[in-house]
Amino acid sequence: MDLQRLVVDESVSTLFPPGVLLDELNDTPIETTVFDESVDRLSPDQGVVTFDYHEAFLDSGWVHCVLAGVDQFPFERFQDESTPLTNSTGIHGDAIGETVAGYVLAFARRLHQHIGNQQRRDWSQPDWDEAWTVDGETACVVGLGSLGRGIVDRLTGLGLDVVGVRRTPTPEPGVEEVYTPDDLLEAVSEARFVVLAVPLTDRTRGMVDGETFAAMDDDAYVINVGRGGVVDQAALVTALEDDLIAGAALDVFETEPLPDASPLWGMDDVIVSPHCGAFTRDYCNHVAALVDENVSRIRDGDDLVNRVV
Question: Active-site residues: which are they?
Fold first, then answer.
């Protein structure tokens, strides 16, 4: 590929201003501009950095997604057009790990309740047996990739015992036992926190369903920082309403933004955040480093980092 130009789609503004990324790519040895679909026409000598998918991107020579999850991109179309697709996996572990640690501590120390009470000027202390400390509790981390690694490091640092789930049961530092998805029910059965950090694929879609919630203890919390489609959301609502589980912290949903009519908004012991668990002021720097690396690799004829298709 003879890469001559790199365009940044305005959709990256969900995470950071396009101009900030252009500044970070200032030393890239090719022209870099913001993509204007109404004016620009893409060609095989151009690369695209984007948050969203647009049909026009298939005419380019390479597409880089600023997200780790690329389930919104039609892989078969990219294969048919021989357009390489790369993603930003590997840069979110620290931010997601800290987000999960925040959810865990909020539930244990009842911080989410205090925030709600503050809005109502309600001076209500928790019951004597309502708050607890997380040292010695068990967390099951479903997905032990780069996101899972960041989560494991934070939770073990807080004193939790961690078990994990991934396709191959190879040992993982800090994880006491690794299960396969076939043993998911056993893996979650004794966990106070079940943390979902898997991408959305045909295998993971709906993997956490009513049977999974029934296998959990009634004092367990579900934390989803992967993709909304990994969870059967209707089954989750039912599990919360029927007190099969204690609560949930959700950063991702089947439909985003979460519809106003969703019962999740008003539920006790449910934390809703707007798909921002990976947000950090350094996000742009991390993406720029990946893009820079792949620009160099393309010009040198080397394999791309984080190639998905």
Answer: 227, 256, 275
